[in-house]
Amino acid sequence: MSSEPMVASDRAVPLLAVVRGVAQQLDLAPGVGAGTCSKENTMSVPAPVGPLGPRIPRRAALLTPPALLGLAACGPNASGGSDDSGDGTTLRFYWWGNTTRDAQTNEAADLYLEEHPELTISREPTDWGGYWDKLATQVAGGDTPDVMQMDEGYLAEYSSRGVLLDMGGTAFDPAQFDPSALDAGKVEGTLYAVNAGVNAPVLLANPAVFEEAGVEMPDDTTWTWDDLVEIAARITESTPEGTYGVQQLGIQGDPNQSVFLRQLGGEKFDGSSLGFTAEQLTQWFDLAVRLQEAGACPGADAAVEESGQTVDQSMFAVGTVALQSQWSNQLVSFDNLLDGTVRMLRLPSMTGSAADAKLWYKASMYFAVAADSALQEEAVEFVDWLTNSLDAGRILLAERGVPANLEVREAIAGELGESDLKVFDYIDAIAEELGDPPPITPPGGGAVGDAMQRAMEEVLFGRVSVADGVAAAIAESESALS
To answer: According to DSSP H, which parts of 67-151 are helical?
Structure first.
């Protein structure tokens, strides 16, 4: 969903990639994917070549002119969000999302402003693909948004560098929060981010594509990865050219990769190190190759292109892929695009038992406040309202996941639409099958998924062997964590 293909050893790197060096000089690991600025604001510079393509040195920032920091967001309000007129202070709110989330968030912000006419809120939505590059350049330029969405993969990274405010002792009230959901926003016991919703790994299914192929929906409590390959290949064979059984899970990465590794006894991380072996990662790469060779998924070219698509333009959303791995809260957006027909399936297991699938509850995302915000009190009060207010809950519903506030969760249960109910029901259905929560992503860990995808792309394009791809992925990942 959020990766940038790097498959040519002599390709030029956009200017935004050099700006990543600014963040790296601060030891922040930005995400992957192109930024949202216009092409007129980019240029090309030569890139050092690594074993899997060009890489930006950690000290590239030393070569970056200060003027380039102006690329951060192409201006603080240039993202297309609305600027509310008011008589007082402007609070900047930055999030990644989709059309459904944007509409709900804007509606909630409008309601909040009715109660706080002294404020204005500058809304800065973007897509996941450009989110982390943009945030890193904003932080490096001293232009951090007052309120921002945060992901588990970057929570330890940003909190350890002093970017995020310690929410303990502020006006945020955690009294009604599920204790485990609250703890998910803590790093070494300090609350740096507030859980915006609970979700879990899921495989979304489009029944229309199954029906077109004449293939029955699988029993997701008993199926295996071998079953997935076989079912997906049959769907591809039985539908028109350009329609496939499943997305290329190897390019997608998480949550599938982490689920698969956990079923083998590994974890993505173990403290500040990788939590899996080369043998375990080899089995994951082998599965991706099997999917491709069986015709169960799109070829490498299409899979890489697909990884950069927005939700509404994804192959699953347009009906040319039957199965797509996601986090459960994303069901709402896809269900809206597919007329409420999407089914939610557990990911397969090695043994054919859902109890061995090793799924887990995850904070879908967090709300965090900038430690250097001049509006800390206002920002904290806004986050408290977004997560604790029944009025906000009735607007936001379950698009960001099942609310972490138990009072809000109960209050909105009777007001949910069919899509939100599917999410609630799925979260309840897997409750007795969950594995232990995985270790938190350590500083530098945000770059590991990027390294995995680069290596996976090289393997799927046939440029390197599985063994060499695995070795390169581990080497680059260990370097990012060191």
So the answer is: 99-115, 128-140
| Residue 124 β-bridge partners | 94
Length of the chain (residues) = 482
CA-CA distance, 349 to 257, in Å (whole number)?
12
Of 6-10, 116-120, 290-294, 410-414, the poorest mean pLDDT is in 6-10
pTM here is 0.76
Distance from C-alpha of 348 to C-alpha of 230, rounded to nearest angstrom: 12
- State how far the Cα of 475 lies from the Cα of 189, in Å rounded to an integer: 31
Q: Which helix (H) or strand (E) holds 473?
A: helix 466-481
* pLDDT tens by residue, 264-281: 999 999 999 999 999 999
Percentage of the residues of the chain whose pLDDT score is greater than 70: 82
Indicate the burial class of 77 (C-beta count within 10 angstroms; 0-12, 13-18, 19 or more).
Answer: middle
Which residues contact residue 426 at a Cβ distance below 8 angstroms, ignoring those fewer than 6 apart?
200, 202, 328, 331, 344
Tokens of 362: 């995850």
Reported as a single tens digit per residue, the pLDDT across 58-96 is: 323 322 333 333 333 333 333 333 444 444 599 999 999
Asked if 119 contacts 86 with a C-beta cutoff of 8 angstroms, the reply is yes
Q: What is the DSSP string of 341-361?
A: --EEEPPPBSSS-GGGS----
